[in-house]
Amino acid sequence: MNKRYVSFYSYKNHVKGDKKSKLITKYKATDASVHDSQVLEDLPEPTDKNEELFADSAYSGEPVSEVLE
Description:
Elements: E1 11-17, E2 24-31, H1 62-68
Antiparallel strand pairs: 1-2
């Protein structure tokens, strides 16, 4: 089967987790076509300032750096 001619309908889960408790502290679901970096502004909170961020390569680049500052 050629994937090129098949439509897929799906969603992505974006989560913010606590490193110590290993619990999810914030969650957002989006359409699968939404790029991971587009929800970055929705997950961190002011109390997360100066905390470590663990993320994949979708969360890199200058626009993401500006959001995190």
